[in-house]
Structures are given as structure tokens and as C-alpha cells.
Fold this sequence. Notes:
Blueprint: H1 4-14, E1 23-25, H2 27-33, E2 36-40, H3 51-60, H4 64-69, E3 71-74, H5 78-90, E4 94-98, H6 104-112, E5 116-119, H7 124-138, E6 141-142, H8 149-165, E7 171-175, H9 180-192, E8 197-203, H10 208-214, H11 236-245, E9 248-252, H12 254-267, H13 278-285, H14 287-290, E10 294-298, H15 306-319, E11 323-331, H16 336-346, E12 350-357, E13 367-375, H17 379-391, E14 395-399
Parallel strand pairs: 2-10, 3-4, 3-6, 4-5, 7-8, 7-10, 8-9
Antiparallel strand pairs: 1-2, 11-13, 11-14, 12-13
Amino acid sequence: MLSLTDIEQAAQRLQGHLLNTPCVASKTLSQLTGAQIYLKFENLQYTASFKERGACNKLAQLSADERRRGVIAMSAGNHAQGVAYHAQRLGVRAVIVMPRFTPGVKIERTRSFGAEVVLHGDTLDESHAHALALAEREGLVFVHPYDDEAIVAGQGTVGLEMLQAVPDLDTLVIAVGGGGLIAGIATAAKALRPGIEVVGVQTSRFPGMVNAIKGTHYPQGSSTIADGIAVGTPGLITQAIIARLVDDLVLVDEGDIEQAIVMLLEIEKTLVEGAGAAGLAALLKYPARFAGRKVGLVLCGGNIDPLLLAAIIERGMVRAGRLARIKVSARDIPGSLARITATVADAGANIDEVHHQRAFTMLSAQNVEIELVIQTRGRDHIAQVLATLNAAGFAAAEQP
């Protein structure tokens, strides 16, 4: 059974090979959520994820024969980069099997560390099966992303560092995929501070650990923006630790995660991937659950596809009322469009897009429908823009 001693020994192995990342208070997020929030910036690791810790601890303990044979891993990206980087550092051959849907940024970064990347399957489970077959065929040492005590011990060093930085934390909120991070953190935290509460967070599209621990039967989806925790089959080692040491598991939705990503970008000026935002998403979805508590969150990864990030930011602006779509009806005469755009400008909004529609409308032939996407300061400003347009004689309304 994994113990605090295992995690402390892992911490000694990791010294000098990765960052003891900052764990600092966020005043603004604390004000917004009603909890005292401390953020552990694991997205600042060299491979932008905590996964380096477990990989480094595992590879550091390989025998001379195992190093000669090389290692193989399956991963959606962060474990892949951690294994590839530390294998390269130790001069060990690394083969990484990744699902076909893996973001290109993670594939290219993994290759940049000298690993041989094999794209196979649409899920981690399919990649897992292929990696095991390759390991058997080529004599490679399989490095599991979470169901391995050496991996879990390495991840647990995050908990050691958090409690060294902020000893009086009373709650830890941790993203859960296969369970390696929360199993390691819970082992360390409960040994050092038995009264601390440890809460796991899964996306509602991949509730495998919640179902396994709570006996629920939530359906599994096929994709999520939190691809780092898109795990269908929980680990056996991690599940046993979670059942014993983790106090609660909660689910968050895609919109909660999107909102958390945008808030961390805007407020903390830090970039996280979907899994890295899961902890904050839980506080946003269940504020009463954590109100008044001293909460540690792990920003566990920062590897996100730029195009996905752009879409999330744009959708976040829509939710916040800073990007709005309005429809304006007017007489189809010269100068109407100029008057509409001038009126919007006078109201202090900026125009992103204009769609001038004559044919596909139910209005009379003498009228035109103009759809505008505008940048505003928020919901009140949208109402002000609409009021200004209507006062100028145009029929204007916000579109969903």
C-alpha cells in the first residue's frame, strides 16, 4: 500500500529535475467564489503538466536492463510528454501510443523530446491495448499513466509541496481522470493533515471514477474539452486509494470548464487546458459547497490546442455579454446601413461582423434585415445599444 514515505522518497528523486511550482493565493478568484483559493501552478512545469513527476519517479527506478530495453506509454498528451522528456534526459528509448484525436500541439511536443509517436485508436482504452501489444512484441517496459504505485507516488509530491507552502489548507479540489494525481495527493495530505478534505472533480462526459466509487451509472460521452481526464476505465490501484481517502467526487459540465479557463486566463494571466480548469469549475458550479473554506486547486496542465482556446475565449465572451448578436430591421434605402453602424458606434459598441440580408427574410420587400455581431462592455451595454437603435427608429433585438 502506498505510503507517505514512498511520496517523500519520490520527492527526493525529483529534486533538481523539475520545478517546485508556486502555490499562491488568488484574491480575485477568492472574492468571486466566496472561498479562500490557493493555486498550484503545475502548468509551469517544463512539459506544462504535473505528469512529469510520476514519469520521472518511475524512470529513475528502472534497472539497467529495463533502461536498455526502453519504455512505452499510452497517453492523450501530458503523460506522453513527461515520459518522453525524462526518457530523453536519461538516454532511454521511448515509444508513445496516442489516440488519433490528440491535439496536434501535444503530438508535436512529444516528438520534439525524441519519442517515437504511434497514433492508434479513438480512445485511451484502445491506445492502451495497442501499447500493451507493442510492449510484448518489442520487449519494452510499459509505463502506465496512473495505475502504478511509482507514478502515483510521483504525483503525490504535488500534495507535499502544497501543504509545505500553505500548511493550513482545509480542502483540496483535484481533477480526476484515471486517478493518479488525486490518489497521490490524498495519500500525502491525509498523512500530514488527517482532517483535510479531498474532493475529486470529473467532467460529466467521463464520469468513470464517480460511477466506480459511488455506484452510479452516468453515461459516458465520446469527447470533452478536458481531454486530459477523458478516461473511460479507472485504475485499480488509484480506485482503491480514492475509495479509502477521498471524501467526495463531483461532476462539472463543459460550460463550467470553459468559464474557468477564461477566468484563469483573464484574472490570473495563466493558460490552462480543460483538465487544469476542472478544480475551479467545481467551485464555480458548487459555490455553497466550498464557501468560507481554504481551498487548494491544482492547475494541473497547460497544453491546449490554440484553435480550441480561441473558440473557448469567443464563447466565454458571448456568455459574459461582451460579444452579442443583434438583428436590426430597416427600410432598404441608401444610407440605412451607414446610419445603423453610426448609431451603434455612438452607443460605444464595436462591430465585429455584418450580414446584410434581403432574400431570406419575412420582412416586406421594401425592408432589409441586418445582423450585427458587436463587442460590448457587458449585458447592460447590450441593452443600451438596443435602446439607442430603437430610439433612432430601427427595430432592434438581441439574437440567441
